[in-house]
Design brief:
By secondary structure, the protein is mainly α. The chain is built from five helices and no strands.
Length: 87
Amino acid sequence: MLTLITVLIAIDAVLLVLVVLIQNPKGGGIDSTYGGLGATQMLGASRSTDFIEKLTWYLAAILLALCIAAALLATPEAQGVEQLLTE
């Protein structure tokens, strides 16, 4: 179980890095970087930045929850319980 959570943490961390790199620090975001007016017409200027910002917060919250779960499962008491369950 701990291995699965560790893999999910790694995947979430990579996605979080990619989403943060897409963002523009001045608020332009993906709409001005990748296509200018074409992206604005397709997604809308404010909707694309709102989506990227919300995605960043969701990925960060998921990463926090997974790290807490991994810390709880890595304790010696949790490992003993997991061994009892697998026997």
